[in-house]
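Two records follow; treat each independently.
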Amino acid sequence: MITLVTFGIDPYSLRQLSREITPGLTALFECKEDDINFYATEGLFVHNGVEQNTWYVVIKVMLPRKLQIFQKEAAHIINNFYKNVAIHLEIIFEYYLSDMLQMHDGSDPSEQFHRASAKKFLSKQNTSTNYRFTVLY
């Protein structure tokens, strides 16, 4: 699962933007379109009392750590699409470990315990398994 969370953008413009950017990201990450999600809130990005929406946009990309090798290419794709709706852009990559959750993929009810344990373990380890890289454009 790959999620792009966008701050400082009109959330309604994200509909069309997500349709345009998804094919490029699916080709890069070799995944299905269903694996990529976008999220934007109806918020106000403010600095020193001045609204910054569309002036300064922050995009947080959350994806499995194994996709870290595509960071530079992903930043390039994201920048090319968002530059039409933002003046300044910051892209933050946060990586998580997904291997433990993927090991327990069977339908055996006894594995439900293992999946729940893995999720609980990962949530407890969240601060040590996230990797943050920032790309400024």
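The next record belongs to a different protein.
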Amino acid sequence: MKSLLELKRAVVLAPDDGALRYALAEALFTEGEPGSAITQLERALALTPEDDNARRLLARCYEKTGDPARAAKELELLARRRPDDVSARDELVGFFLQQGRPDDAILHAAEAVRLAPQDAKRSVFLAQLLLERRLT
């Protein structure tokens, strides 16, 4: 794995390489620099808009920098781009629960159950969310 300095140099030499920018963003995020990672991820997504991993990390960076609205926007865009991806719905459920938005979490949990009806754990989790919501 390349060091942060090596990744920065590589991006300077190949500024139009979305994969390099993503790698640099990952390293920056790991080093506790989510704001700098956002800059690299936005540029990476401008070059490769279909990069779902970059979009997921961008959402985490926005959340880490105190911008949950932008984080939600990125996760919702990911779910729209991949309507049959249960993991995208699971991410939204976790995100909305963490943000104290149980109604939004329930909406996406229900969609996850619809996408994976054979998964009993998801169904039980949705039932728990609905029960908790009803009790509050």
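Discussion point: The CA atoms of residues 11 and 20 lie 6 Å apart. How would you locate this feature using only the token line?
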